Amino acid sequence: MAKRVFFSFHYQDVIDFRANVVRQHWVTKDDREEAGYFDASLWESTKRSGEENLKQLINGGLDGTSVTSVLVGSETYSRRWVRYEIFKSLGKGNRLFGVHINGITGKDRQTKPLGPNPFDYLGVRFSQDGNSVALLEWDGAQWITYQNLQGWSFPESKPQSVRGQFYQLTKWYPLYDWNADDGFNNFATWTGE
Asked: Is 155 helix (H, G, I), strand (E, B) or coil?
């Protein structure tokens, strides 16, 4: 059965058409079930004013999804709202993975070098008692507390082995390449289909 997938991306990659190739690849399949997903993400570059409005828009887009696919272009890793979408997806329990899209030919008929992995720039630190997690981001010099979203508590304490430990999200979430890993045929597998 197809999953409801939230796509997280830098809007420039929509303008350049790279994100569109991934998000619309189902069009050439016999049906959406074969593609493995229903697109639940936000299409437009929103002009809504205010941080809380943006958060509400993203939170609404994530409702009913079970998978988040981060489409990795040149600057995706540094985008404030992509980071928010990743952490919200993590807290929601969505399956998370990234897909390099710079190898896809853009509207300029060019490809680009692969962009940095956004999961390298985000991390979590478990509390000493294992009852909560703090969210952290790399600011280019050090790990700092992520300001746009609070960490969360767990209903049960986490095992002793993770208490007080820091983990980059790279440890848990894979990054594929649309071209090299044949995303057209493998995307459904990546979603956990």
From this structure: coil
